[in-house]
Design goal:
Main location: mitochondrion
Radius of gyration: 33 Å
Order of helices and strands: HHHH
Shape: rod-shaped
Strand content: under 5%
Subcellular location: Mitochondrion inner membrane
Protein name: NADH-ubiquinone oxidoreductase B12 subunit family-domain-containing protein
Helix content: 40-55%
Family: Belongs to the complex I NDUFB3 subunit family.
Membrane topology: Single-pass membrane protein
Number of strands: 0
Length: 82
């Protein structure tokens, strides 16, 4: 029979109390707030490129206008003394 510790510390009880059934990480519960709510990956990177959506739409409209000939380019050189 094992003798009890004189300090009252039982490493088996500590391991059982701190065991996490999913990862085995005793700090997982304390770290969970970092990945929920306003700290999710999507929320963190949502503001990384402000104006990218507007710029993409504007550039697409420019390319469509250029493709369909809505932008007339006359070259800028007019020689009317012919």
């Amino acid at each position: 029979m094992a003798r009890p510790s004189i300090t009252g510390f039982d490493p088996k009880k500590l391991a059982a109390a701190s065991a996490n059934s999913t990862t085995g990480d005793p700090w997982a519960r304390r770290e969970q707030w970092r990945y929920t709510g306003p700290f999710t990956r999507f929320q963190r990177f949502k503001g990384a490129f402000p104006g990218l959506g507007i710029a993409t739409v504007a550039f697409s409209a420019y390319l469509a206008a250029e493709h369909f000939g809505l932008l007339q380019d006359d070259g800028g050189h007019h020689d009317e003394t012919a």
